[in-house]
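ok trying again, last paste got cut off:
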Amino acid sequence: MDSMAAARVYGDRVAVLVLARSPRIEAQLKDLERTGRGAGSRLFDASLRRTLTAAREAAPADLHVAVAPEDRNAVRRAVRVSGAKRFLQDGDTFGERVANAVGHLRTSGYSRVVVLAGDCPGIRRHHVVSAVKSLAAHSVVLGPSGDGGLYLLGLDTAAIDCVDLRAVPWLTSDVADAMTRSAAQASLSLRRLDRLDDVDDPRSASALLRHLAVRLSTGSSAIVALLREALRTVLPLQPQAAHAVVHHVHDLAVLWRRPPPTC
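nice, full thing came through this time. structure:
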């Protein structure tokens, strides 16, 4: 019997928690929705759906979505399609909402919780599965993003009870380092996953677009198109920059698809 099956048999319940908010509000807060054309909203809607799909496929973990109260209607369809159990976020600050959501799952009987953000289009099933498996041997699992934040946070019972999630400097570049320090201070074992870039503003969206264009992995073409569309609408005052990004991606795509040169 592998560790995942053993966890289910012996009652070591695992939850994957997605923190969700309105794609429109997400785009506005991150300055990717200036024209009212909906390009930024479509980008974050696609990112949330990809995150929910990755989480849903990470069996045997149970999928839960904590929805911002003001956004409950905006994400209803995406959550319903995912088959997740939904509850409302509670708290005045982001730290309080994270802590209360994790606490809710802890009191519901879950001993391991993997928390995902909805703004990381590169998340895949294997990232979530790796986090769930890692929590069998480690108390804390971090999925760092390029800006110092996290796209994934995994906690076992010891970490949930020891780490004050309200005190973490969320929404800053010190989140990953702060969680690392907290784990060390509590003598909790920690594992870091591969870095993934999330979308926090037009600059990070441009960086992610270039990265995805180089890789051109399966399933990335739709996100590449949405990133291109969003950047066209938010860089009207910098037409040369927008033109350069879009055409750089096109040139890379053409080069990638060409057959290798013959000797």
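cool. Residues 145 and 168 are 16 Å apart (CA to CA). Confidence is low (pLDDT under 50) at residues 1-10, 237-263.
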